TrEMBL record:
InterPro entries: P-loop_NTPase, Sulfotransfer_4. It comes from the Eukaryota. The lineage of its organism: Eukaryota, Fungi, Dikarya, Ascomycota, Pezizomycotina. Pfam families: Sulfotransfer_4 (PF17784). This is P-loop containing nucleoside triphosphate hydrolase protein.
Length: 247
């Protein structure tokens, strides 16, 4: 998915690749509850292969939540906003980020990958102590280039804030997650230049914090790279290696 597509509409190729994004629903997650156990927390940063991890976990039988899922249920962004406000801005009245909260927001899935979930890694680990944790990491400069091309380029756009102002029901919700939740909250960036300047240190700190969080549970943590293939992932999760040629 690209910035162009967000503004001007999605291509047939994107719709075919991610059909779950284009089945529009209007579910208020505040009213939901857990219907399946949370089993896998794939908490690598966005642009480290989260779409591939979504595909892999889905093949292995997990109902998996990726950041692009709120394109099909925009109301999800309301609870994600509450989560960012609670963690990064400590706003009065913000919810406690425990299993009660996440069972509403993520109760319909058994695995997560990508942001917004990756922005809330320690909280999800605390909420679901029985879940396995997977960290997918890339060489930092390769990651930065990919991240810059998507996130920071988008942050420099003068068009999206205007569209968000005009479309409060949809685009404004998406814009808030990226501009306020991710950029200002997780990356401490007030503008695109700070977003770029803070990116590498935020990336390093993200992985360091999660490794420290999992230090007491080393057997529940897999450090994984996509080039490792199916075997280490399947062994870690207790799954048979599928016929698919690659993760």
């Amino acid at each position: 998915m690209s910035l162009y597509e967000l503004i001007f509409g999605f291509t047939a190729a994107t719709k075919a690749k991610h059909p779950e994004c284009f089945t529009a629903t209007a579910i208020d997650r505040h009213t939901c509850h857990r219907t399946t156990p949370m089993q896998v927390l794939s908490l690598g940063m966005s642009r480290t292969g989260t779409a591939s991890m979504h595909a892999a976990l889905t093949i292995l039988g997990y109902d998996t939540y990726h950041g692009f899922h709120f394109y099909s249920n925009v109301l999800d962004t309301d609870m994600w906003r509450e989560a960012y406000e609670s963690k990064y801005f400590a706003l009065p009245g913000s919810p406690i980020l425990d299993y009660h909260f996440f069972d509403k927001l993520l109760g319909h899935v058994s695995a997560v990958t990508d942001i917004p979930a990756a922005s809330l890694g320690p909280e999800l680990i605390s909420a679901y102590p029985d879940a396995k944790v997977v960290l997918v990491e890339r060489e930092i400069e390769a990651w930065y280039k990919s991240f810059h091309d998507v996130f920071i380029t988008t942050a420099r756009s003068a068009v999206i804030p205007w569209i968000a102002w005009l479309d409060s029901a949809y685009t404004k919700r998406m814009w808030w997650i990226g501009e306020k939740g991710v950029a200002l909250g997780q990356f401490g960036a007030r503008n695109a230049d700070e977003f770029a300047a803070n990116a590498r240190s935020t990336y390093r700190n993200h992985y360091a914090e999660l490794r420290e969080t999992m230090k007491s549970r080393p057997n529940d943590l897999l450090e994984f790279q996509l080039r490792d293939g199916w075997k280490p992932l399947c062994e870690f999760l207790g799954k048979e290696v599928p016929d698919s040629s690659r993760v």
